[in-house]
Amino acid sequence: VPSQIPPLTPFEHYDHGKDADPTFPDLLPSGKAQVEEITPYIGSEVCGVQLSQLTKEGKDQLALFAAQRKVVAFSDQDFAHLPIEKALEYGGYFGRHHIHQTSGAPKGFPEIHLVHRGADERAGIQFLQCHTNSVAWHSDITFENQPPVTRYIVGYKKEESDFLLKFLFDLIALSQDIQMPLKWTPGTVVVWDNRVTAHSALYDWDDGQRRHLARITPQAEAPYETPFEGEIGHEAGN
């Protein structure tokens, strides 16, 4: 049953990536960590690193590395075996926890967002019986001050706005050059920068197994418009 939580309030966010050593000596130690870039622009897979054991410096470097690579998958992690309090303490280092008002959560821990598929779940098969692919879009937190959805571009006529938005939505959904495909394996932990990415699930399994996912979402700064370099008043030194 959805719970009643207070509205989001402004807060001062600090990005720990600003404190990180850009050579990542604590996150990706030489001779221990193996890193594979999935594409030149987005996505890395990392082996040989245990996130739960990172020092403060390592966490700072994780924030920077995730911002640079957008999506990072770490294999053979022990997060699923950590006490929930420890997992939340870890996520809280990077920002105030977001509480998903309509999702399932462990009792007493609304900060954990759960996604569950039972062993008898057949929604994927039913979906693909009516569609050619699993590309879809939804937003389930539209009540927030900055919901992750765009309905209309101010200053354009409706037909112009609809045309541009369709182009942008198709660009995100269909451009394989800016996508990172990830096949889950036991122990996988994925870190992504939700400020500049969107995620989508594929129906790439039908093995009769239960699927159970937990997500921790630190909040960051409120969105704001950054002037283009070269604009009047934004020249170097101004």
Termini Cα gap = 52 Å
Strand percentage, roughly?
Answer: 5-15%
Average of the residue pLDDT scores? 86
Oligomer: single chain
Shape by Cα distribution: globular
List the helices and strands in order. EEHEHEHHEE
* Main sheet attributes: strand count, strand direction, barrel closure: 4 strands, mixed
Secondary structure class reads alpha+beta
Low-pLDDT regions: 234-238
Radius of gyration: 20 Å
What's the number of helices? 4
Overall number of strands:
6
Instruction: Going across the biggest sheet, name each strand in turn.
Output: 1-2-3-5
Helix residue percentage: 10-25%
Protein name: TauD/TfdA-like domain-containing protein
Biased composition (Basic and acidic residues): 12-21
Family: Belongs to the TfdA dioxygenase family.
Keywords: Dioxygenase, Iron, Metal-binding, Oxidoreductase
Structure summary:
Keywords: Dioxygenase, Iron, Metal-binding, Oxidoreductase. With 238 residues, the chain is of the alpha+beta class. The chain contains 4 helices and 6 strands, in the order ββαβαβααββ.
Structure, described:
- By secondary structure, the chain is α+β, with helices and mostly antiparallel strands.
- It has a domain at 16-119 and 179-215.
- Helices cover 20% and strands 11% of the residues.
- The protein contains 4 helices and 6 strands.
- It has helices at residues 56-69, 84-92, 123-130, 158-174; strands spanning 34-37, 44-47, 71-74, 113-117, 189-192, 211-215.
- A 4-stranded mixed sheet has the order 1-2-3-5, covered by helices on one side. The chain has a two-stranded antiparallel ribbon with strand order 4-6.
